[in-house]
Amino acid sequence: MALVLLASGTFVYLGLRAELTEALDDSLETQASAVARLIVEHGAAEPGLTVGLDDPGETFTQVLSPSWRLLSSTPGLPLRPIVSRAQAEAAPEGLTLTLEGVALADDEGPSEIDLEALQETGSEPFEEDRARVLARRIDVGGERLTLVVGATYEDPHEALRGLAAVLLISAPIALLLTGLIGYGTVRGALRPVERMRHQAAAISAHKPGARLPVPPADDELARLARTLNDMLSRLEHALERERTFVADASHELRTPLAILRAELDVALRGSRSAEDLEAAVVSASEEAERLGSIAESLLLLARSDSGELPLRREAIDVRTLLEDIRDRFAARAAEAGRSLESAAPKGLVVEGDRMRLEQAVANLVENALRHGAGSVRIMARGDLDAVELAVADEGDGFPPPFVAHAFERFSRAGEGRGGSGSGLGLAIVALIAAAHDGTVRIDSAERAGARVILRLPRSGPAADR
Predict the structure, then answer these.
(1) What are phi and psi of 157, to 5 degrees?
(2) What is the second-level CATH architecture of the domain 220-305?
(3) 399, CA 20 to 30 Å: which among 105, 211, 230, 340?
(4) Three-state SS at 365
(5) Using one digit for the tens of pLDDT, what is the confidence trace for 348-358?
(6) What is the bridge-based pairing of β-strands 376-382 and 143-152?
């Protein structure tokens, strides 16, 4: 604000000075025209020719003959011409003469002279030591006379001094008032920010649900408060998911660890038979395998949450992929007395990470063998946009309330599809589908059995139907 006031004051001061100088030049032009008319009418030697036209101590007039003799001069000026003969002779016909060494030209206008050196002792002094001078040549009775009129800077300087005094007094007052008003305005505008800061400092993970106050006005601060509150909601949701994830993971790990410890305790007892010892070791091995599977699933989910799930994309023949998965689970299906079939069109190709897609379909087959009943079918079909991989069984299917949460972590079907499991298989399938820009869904159109469909963007020639 100080810089603005300084710049505006300087602009006003310089502007007024230019206007006053222009007004002074106009007055000199008017005075020269008036004196010229009097000279033409009464002659240059008329006593008191300029009485009433000159302002004593401020304006002056001189009339010079062709021989450069002083014909008339305002009291207070020296009795000699203030314009040199060389300057007058150099002036073209009818043009304005300027002083202080400026060339004679019609667009130069008045210039300045030093009056202090021109004043004589005993004459009426001028109040200013600088003046604006205009010289003009006129023809009177066949003679070419030179008319010189001038004016001091008393009136312009007085006006400028008054303006400077006003600026010097008003500028600090204006600066103080605008500073106080600006401080109060900014402080009032930032008061909601301070309230938001205090509330934000009081928010902690131990007291969920706290939110920042939203100002009543629909402005930037209100929108910022709403955005931060939405962010707090997302953070609370993420924190709650993290807590639930840790609790569920701890619960899942606790059971196989307890079984593993019990089986090892049994194996360490010397009174057990060889058959009991072998059964304990086999059970411990199964629980260790289950622990490894859970740990691998948790690691995969953690990598996905941190955005570090790398994919090695390649063109995959879908028929070969399904046949490999069928062969992998064939012995387990035969042991359970269930059939396992795969069917896929020839030449159907999908772009993706083979290991991850195999893991996703394997999880679906694992769920079908563990929780379903009857034969298990692994199928594939393609259209112009995508390839669908489906796994279906002939069991009781998913309970309707479970379908909406089937792909959440640690979710189980409960009574509809009972049995053991960590509740991470379908969550990992959804994760792998999302990493491939695909989707996964449960087909609820069929009345019997469960059917899970993994839809992926396709690549390669269209499949034969």
Answers:
(1) -65, -35
(2) Orthogonal Bundle (1.10)
(3) 340
(4) helix
(5) 999 998 888 98
(6) unpaired
Put residue 209 in one of left, alpha, beta given phi > 0 → left and psi -120 to 50 → alpha.
left
Q: Rounded to whole angstroms, what are the CA distances from 345 to 236, 338, 352?
A: 47, 24, 18
Q: Quote the CATH superfamily of domain 313-457.
A: Histidine kinase-like ATPase, C-terminal domain (3.30.565.10)
Q: How many angstroms separate the CA atoms of 154 and 426, rounded?
A: 97
pTM over 0.70: no
Write down the residue that tokens 């469909």 correspond to.
Answer: 453
Phi, psi of 86 (to 5 degrees): -65, -40
**Cα–Cα dist 4/17, whole Å:** 20
Region(s) of the chain under CATH 3.30.565.10: 313-457
Domain with CATH 3.30.450.20 in the chain: 2-159
User: Across-strand partners of 457?
Assistant: 386
What is the rounded distance in angstroms from the CA atom of residue 411 to the CA atom of residue 428?
12
Q: At 90, is the pLDDT very low, low, confident or very high (cuts 50, 70, 90)?
A: low
Tell me what pLDDT residue 10 has.
Answer: 93
Q: Smallest Cα–Cα separation from 116: which of 147, 61, 150, 78?
A: 78
Mean pLDDT of 124-129: 56
Q: Which residue has the tokens 């020639």?
A: 461
CA 454/CA 439 separation, integer angstroms: 6
What does the pLDDT average to over 84-98? 53
Q: Kindly state the average pLDDT of the residues 337-362.
A: 90
- Pinpoint the residues of the chain covered by CATH 1.10.287.130: 220-305
CATH architecture assigned to 2-159: 2-Layer Sandwich (3.30)
Q: What is the pLDDT of residue 342?
A: 92
Please give the distance of CA 369 from its chain centroid, rounded to a whole number: 55
d(CA 409, CA 243): 12
